[in-house]
Amino acid sequence: MTGYAVQLDAGAPDFLQDPYPVLASLRATGPVLWHEPMGVWLATTHDAVSQVMRNRAFGRIWTDWEPKSQMEPFNALHRNQMMENEPPTHTRLRRLVAAAFGRGHVERMRPRIEQLAASMVDDLGEQFDILGRYAEPMPVYVIADLLGVPREDHEKLRAWSQAIVHMYEPNVGALVKADAIAASTAFSDYVRAVVEERRSAPGDDLITDLIQARDEGTKLSDDELVASVVLLLNAGHEASVNVFGNGFHALLQHPDQMARITSGEVSVETALEELIRFDAPLQLFERTATADVEVCGQLVRTGQRIACLMGSANRDAAVFADADTFDVGRDPNPHVGFGMGVHFCLGAPLARLELQISIGTLLDRYPRLQLVGEAPRRPTWVLRGFERIDVKVEP
Ligand code: HEM
Question: In the CATH hierarchy, which fold is given to the domain comprising 13-393?
Answer without folding.
Answer: Cytochrome p450 (1.10.630)
